[in-house]
Structures are given as C-alpha cells and as structure tokens.
Amino acid sequence: MASRGSLRWLATAGMVAASLVLAGCSSFGPPTSGACIDWVYFESPADAADEADAVIVGTVESSAGSTTYLDLPATKWHVSVDRWIKGGDGSRTVVVTSLPRSCGDTHDSVADAVDAGPVVLFLRDGKSGWETLTPFQGLIPAERDGNLPSEWPADMHD
Fold first, then answer.
1. Among 86, 100, 106, 145, which is 20 to 30 Å from 38 by CA?
2. Environment class of 110 (CB within 10 Å of its CB; exposed 0-12, middle 13-18, buried 19+)
3. Domain count for the chain
4. If you write DSSP's letter for every residue of 89-110 in order, what string do you get?
5. What is the pLDDT along the chain (158 residues), one digit of tens a residue?
6. In this structure, is residue 20 part of a structural domain?
7. CATH number (domain holding residue 58)
8. How much is the pTM?
9. Does residue 17 belong to any structural domain of this protein?
10. Residue 122 within any structural domain of the chain
C-alpha cells in the first residue's frame, strides 16, 4: 500500500506533467486575429452598377497610400476619370480604396489594373471616400467603346 507522501508526490508529478503537455499546445507569440468577410456576389456588371453609389470609366494610375478597412490593410489608388456613368460629382480624378479580400488573401484586384487601360469601377461612398463595391467585383475592363460589359470575365476571381 502506498503512503500518503508517495501519493502526494505522484499527484504533484502528474499535475506538472499535465501542465507541460498543455504548455506545448500554446504559442508564445502575441495573440493574432483575422477576419473573413462574406462579400456579396453580383450576377452581372449591371447588377453591380445598380447597387453602386457611383460607376466610372477611368484608368488606375498609382498608389495613393495605405489605409485599413475593418482593421484589415487596404490600399488607396489614384484614378483618372474619363466618364461618370452613375453618381459622383464629375471630378476628373478620384482616390479609391480597394477593399481587402480577407481570410488571409492579400491580393489587391485594383493593383492589377494599374496602367492596364480603361476600366469600369463600381464604387460606394464610404465614410472616408470612394471604395470599390467589393474586392472581387469592384472593377472590370471597359468595353472598347468605354461602356459597361454585359458579363463578368471568366477569370474574375483569380
């Protein structure tokens, strides 16, 4: 039969061993967080235009700096406006925030359009200025005549 002292020693050793095992399951860095945003999907560019506060045809020129959206990093872009299809004030240049994709996807769809020719941008009037309607359907290459395409490109979400 075991003595009280040996039972206490076994209980203490068991607690220490359990603590060491649990400590191995935790990380020693600062806590991190992430967000996943469930963005709306529009069946067609016309549907996105209906929902947008403004729609422009223009050229994405260059970065205008960094900002955040729902605590996620986002980039602002200088856009030269050729034509306002809907809304807006007629400005010839605007700054547009490219909304972040989230869920760890850091690709910026507007960055792909820098100096790529005319695009149609679907914008909403955010609290700090113009923002793309969504990160996936915020812009589309303009038709040759500068009009709104009737369908999304096949590679829209690449």
1. 86
2. buried
3. 1
4. ---SEEEEEE---BTTB---TT
5. 555 554 444 444 444 444 434 444 444 445 445 678 777 889 999 999 999 999 999 999 999 998 888 888 889 999 999 999 999 889 999 999 998 887 877 788 899 899 889 999 999 999 889 999 988 889 999 998 888 899 998 876 55
6. no
7. 2.40.50.120
8. 0.75
9. no
10. yes
Residue 152 falls inside a structural domain:
no
The residue type found at 145 is D
Give me the amino acid identity at 117: G
Residue type, 105: D
List CB contacts of 115: < 8 A, sequence separation 6 or more.
59, 60, 61
Domain of residue 133 covers 45-141
